[in-house]
Design a protein that fits this description.
single chain; mainly beta; Jelly Rolls; ten-stranded mixed beta sheet; seven-stranded antiparallel beta sheet; 3 helices; 17 strands
Length: about 270
């Protein structure tokens, strides 16, 4: 039933989206090339997603995050048409490293250059949680990711990172749109970001990216929140893959309460158009 409804909704949404996008002079991408409707139950579809678990920073994850990412079904599963990414308070040892939280980090087994990404998600309300919807250059030299094992040769941030949505851990209404990259003009790490105050960030919203050779646009519920020229000194002309994760603590997650037990990010669908 959900799949039939989906095709009807896609048609309706494309009509409404196309009307608004043309008014904004945004390019329209209509061909669905990859996605997940989460119309199944249980483990995440391994033909579509890679669960990244090997820490990238000497037994830990970047940005002083406090969790290990696992393949355990309690940290990532599909139920009632929704992907659940769940952070759990527990003592856990992986790769000779001890942590007090577990969670999940998903890599798409698909990469692309230019197009539109739509992710409908509901973000956590608990302080100390740091959910993200983002992309990395497929040429990144990073241990344990899906595409990097085959293609990785470029370190971060030379590969480029596009944060479609990051939620602040201590002010849950603050959402971030960010570019991370190595500026080829200055030869220095650079970032460009926009912080938006979104009062309904804990409801289901559609977080979108429209990425072209000339521009990058961020959208919330099909309305532009930020736009940036895709210039020659940025590395955003190579293939990227999609990541979904829920971190605990760290530079944007902040302090975690002693009473924290469990929190989740819910995802209704992921769609990539070209």
């Amino acid at each position: 039933m959900k799949q039939k409804i989906f095709y009807c909704l896609v048609f309706i949404l494309l009509i409404s989206c196309n009307h608004e996008i043309k008014e904004k002079n945004l390019p329209v991408y209509e061909k669905l090339v990859w996605g997940d409707e989460f119309d199944y139950e249980g483990k995440v579809d391994s033909t579509l997603w890679h669960l990244q678990t090997i820490p990238i920073d000497n037994g830990s994850w970047a940005n002083n995050e406090l969790q290990h990412y696992t393949e355990n079904i309690k940290n990532s599963y599909v139920k009632d048409g929704l992907l659940n990414i769940v952070a759990v308070k527990e003592e856990i040892e992986m790769y000779n490293s001890f942590k007090n939280f577990s969670s999940a980090r998903l890599n798409s087994k698909f990469d692309f250059r230019y197009g539109r990404i739509d992710v409908k998600a509901k973000l956590p309300v608990t302080e100390g949680t740091w959910p993200a919807i983002w992309t990395l250059g497929s040429n990144i030299d990073e241990v344990g990711n899906y595409l990097g094992d085959n293609k990785g040769e470029i370190p971060w941030p030379f590969c480029g990172e596009i944060d479609i949505m990051e939620q602040n851990g201590w002010n849950k209404s603050n959402l971030y749109n960010v570019l991370h990259f190595q500026n080829s003009l200055t030869n220095k790490k650079d970032e460009i970001k926009k912080i938006s105050n979104v009062s309904n960030s804990n409801d289901f919203n559609v977080y979108s990216l429209v990425w072209t050779e000339e521009n990058i646009f961020w959208l919330l519920n099909n309305k532009i929140t930020f736009e940036q020229k895709n210039t020659d000194f940025m590395p955003f002309d190579n293939n990227h893959y999609l990541l979904l994760n829920l971190a605990i603590g760290g530079i944007l997650g902040g302090e975690v309460s002693e009473s924290f037990l469990e929190e989740k990010m819910l995802v209704d669908y992921v769609r990539i158009y070209q």
